[in-house]
Amino acid sequence: MIPKTIIITGAASGIGRHWANVLLGRIGEYRLMLTDVNEPGLRAAFTSDESLALRGHDIRSAEQWQGVIDATLQKFGRIDYLFNIAGANRPAFLQDQSIQSIDQTIDVNLKGPLIGMRLVGEIMLKQGAGHIVNVASLAGLSPTPGNALYSAAKGGLRNASIAAAIEWRARGVAVTVISPDLVDTPVLQERLETAGEEAALAFSGATLTVEDLETSFWKAMRDKPLELNLPRWRGWLTKLNHAVPALMLWLYEPMKRRGMKKLEKIRKERLGK
Questions:
Q1: Is 217 helix (H, G, I), strand (E, B) or coil?
Q2: Average pLDDT of the chain, as a whole number
Q3: Which residues are identified as catalytic?
């Protein structure tokens, strides 16, 4: 069996690091190009070899994306999968966001993945085969008070993913967008100390693990769906809210109270506060 070549962005920590380690455990099945803007962290976590390449990578840069693609093709000859996992978010009410935060949030969570889709998609279309998996967020399925910028960026990524999936499916290239609820990663732990009401809606639903995302990645690779929402019930709730935005006028306060209660519980368990 010829190993499949996979690019994973955001591989230095969290979801990307876990997924890379899972694939590395399937010796002989996959060849990996792992990238992250935190190159020292990436190289501390992994050691390159004949089936594993590492590269510092700011996903906002088309030039750096092209460098990743060229290096992958030079080393492995083709690209079978792209997992667009890299992202960043710091919840804040809109009036508290700086103008620079608008650029940062849109560039990292929307522009960067779109550049990757465009450039990697070109290679896959030439091959006549390939699969792009984009990690968005349930915040992108409906308006999310306290997270307006991230909601806008991830909503754009979801829409672009599904549009590209329809454009490319007949040419052998699949695109799947995965929208999870809050995921328990080191970033979550770091922000427990300062999180407030602006993050309440993020804590109002499920708290997923990196293993939950791993399961969704395997399902995406097997079934090639247009989208997966985690958990499914929360996905349907967010879609209902998107269809009837006025619901949030009624739901926001009770959801905020629920989220703050859960946040305080997690903070007490982990920080003793």
A1: helix
A2: 94
A3: 150
